[in-house]
Amino acid sequence: MNKDLPIGVIDSGVGGLSVLKCLRQALPDEQFIYVGDTARTPYGSRTEAEVRTFVEEMLCWLDKQQIKLAVIACNTITVLGIDTLQKEHKFPLVGMSKGEELVLQASRNKKIGVMATPFTVSTRAHEKAILAKDSQAQVYLQPCPDFVPLIEKEILSGAEVQQAVAKYADPLKADGVDTVILSCTHYPFIKNIISDEFGAQVTVIDPAEATAALTKDLLANNGLLRTSQAAESIICSTADIGRVRRLAEFMLPQGNYLYRQICLTEK
Ligand code: DGL
């Protein structure tokens, strides 16, 4: 494996840009190729078979670009089981951190809320990961189906977002959680509003930094950290590249990116 190859990053849409932000901070010398499947988002309300087909198309497309590793910057894909996505791709995959250590460290009362897509919630993957570390913890799962469509439509503030946030935060507040994990990579786009809704007594955690740290460790352990100056990173989407660009400029602090609209089945 050539350590100067780029790193692939995939998501159903723009959510993975919140992970790309942390990856760029942790790995400033690397080149990234981001793929958001904006033509078919959201994945969180689709069937497992559909999501598996779409993911395979994204990984095959990245294979053709030649990458050294792919980050699955999407919880809905990660909970399918990273090993089951590996197939015969030449590069290793890193999934989203479930953040079980982070939430258990942050929580005083061990009442933990998980906000995620309906699909992610249905697998109970985060609950299982937290309980495997601490069987005394109480985990409250909250599906938030309205968030991804709003964020994809660039609605990141205002009454509609406030109402959706309140609707999903209220049950978790009633359960008395003191820590909430954002287990969908889209949600950091509205993290401030979510944090304000819960108030200062609740810690809201985004596992993107932990995912970036896992990625860095995997590269370092395999001698794959880049040593030469990287070319510009590329942000690709399967639809609406102009909208993706605006959301990328909102999420990513600075830096030069190339933007490309792609067809995943192109030769
Ligand atoms: N950003 C994704 C996640 O982390 C998926 C959102 C969706 O497509 O429903 O789950």
Q: Which characteristics define this entry?
A:
6-stranded parallel β-sheet, 267 residues, globular, 4-stranded parallel β-sheet, binds D-glutamic acid, Rossmann fold, 2 domains, 12 helices
Topology:
Elements: E1 7-11, H1 17-26, E2 32-36, H2 48-65, E3 69-72, H3 75-78, H4 82-86, E4 93-94, H5 100-106, E5 111-116, H6 118-123, H7 125-133, E6 138-143, H8 147-152, H9 159-174, E7 179-182, H10 191-198, E8 203-205, H11 208-221, E9 233-237, H12 241-251, E10 257-261
Parallel strand pairs: 1-2, 1-3, 2-9, 3-4, 5-6, 5-7, 7-8, 9-10
Helix pairs in contact: 1-11, 5-7, 9-10
The structure holds D-glutamic acid (DGL).
Describe the structure.
The chain is an alpha/beta fold and 267 residues long. It folds into two domains: 7-96 and 209-261, Rossmann fold (3-Layer(aba) Sandwich); 100-206, Rossmann fold, CATH 3.40.50.1860. Helix content is 43%, strand content 17%. The protein is built from twelve helices and ten strands. The chain has helices spanning 17-26, 48-65, 75-78, 82-86, 100-106, 118-123, 125-133, 147-152, 159-174, 191-198, 208-221, 241-251; strands spanning 7-11, 32-36, 69-72, 93-94, 111-116, 138-143, 179-182, 203-205, 233-237, 257-261. Strands 4-3-1-2-9-10 form a six-stranded parallel β-sheet, with helices on both faces. A four-stranded parallel β-sheet has the order 6-5-7-8, sandwiched between helices. Strand 7, helix 10 (191-198) and strand 8 (203-205) form a beta-alpha-beta unit. Helix 5 (100-106) crosses helix 7 (125-133). The protein is globular. The mean pLDDT is 95. The structure holds D-glutamic acid (DGL). Residues 11-13, 15, 41-44, 74-76, 117, 120, 148, 184-186 line the site of D-glutamic acid.
